[in-house]
Amino acid sequence: MTVLLAGAEILDVESGSMERADVLLQGDRIAAVGPGLSGDEQVDCSGGTLIPGLIDCHAHVAFPSGEPLPRSARILEAVAVLYDLLTRGVTTVRDAWGADAGFPHALSAGWIRGPDLLISVGQLSPTGGLGDDWSPEYGDADAFADPSLPDPLFDGTDSARAAVRRMVRAGADWIKMGANSPLSSIRRGRDITPTDDEIHALVDEARRCGRDVFAHAHTPDSATAAAQAGVRSIEHGVFLDEHAIAAMHRHRCWYVPTLAGIRSEGDEASDAAHRRSVQLALATGVPIAAGSDMSTRPQVDVLDELPLLSEAGLGDAGALRAATSEAARLLRLDHDRGCVAPGLRADLVLLDGSGLSLEDLPGRIRTVWQNGRPVTASHAGSGR
Ligand SMILES: [Zn+2]
Question: E strands within 74-208?
């Protein structure tokens, strides 16, 4: 059975141009794009704009809201969050730790609906670094109290390899590494970072396991060290400089700024430095992909990231590209998704009206298709 999405303007994300055409869906794939097509069923999309499903390269779908609740609440809350993301046009998410292998299992078994999820399980760091939930008050303070999440800490190169193996054993698609401590720790003058040898060992072990590494990094030195070791993307990068950007460019490292996540912290000096990092990356030709760092409630997601990327210099078309074709390239999924083109997955978003303006993008979403299946939006907003 084929379904014809008829009469919309189709966005070519690569060029930013629009063309009126039909899109023919067959099963979970786009079978054809062009004028005058016919299908077994027809959906009238006239007056609308079809864009590829959005990809968030840095989110935390399973972080709990602030309230102290039983452990199960973290999982159950994520069910609503995942469905909400789908109704907002987000069809693929790289989870930057927090979701374990039960999430993609529940999605693929059809128990719940949500974006296609690539997981990293935990965030690897040395003792005292990003992944170490130790507090002077309580000592070990695992915020999730979830023993099914493997220990993310390492000290030394063998230990770094073992940490990678623990994550892969637990189902990680990607390896998340903390090249710096959290921004709040850096501001307090405490930044515990992995050595160059540890980063190299970690990246090498990930590669042996068929995985890529993405690195939380804020300072130029840490971003440079991570890029030189071959990580696939630098996340956040609030304080990047010319030297770090040059290293990223040289080593073909991507940049996922997560402007919305940092903006939500409300520190103007960081926001200004962050925008400058994006502008340096743009000027140097470092590829940029969209990520939101969605983690707190009410959360920001990639729809909040798009206008910020646009303002920072990408423009509306560039921001949409960062959340579609460029994001797919970063995730090595561009053979499968990220554009409206024959052969790719039928992950599509129908927007009301024409034009690329990102103003009120969530309000323009009429229908979302994931794997060729329409998503009803009646549930929208419940997880926020
Ligand atoms: Zn994050």
Answer: 90-95, 116-118, 123-126, 134-135, 139-140, 153-154, 175-178
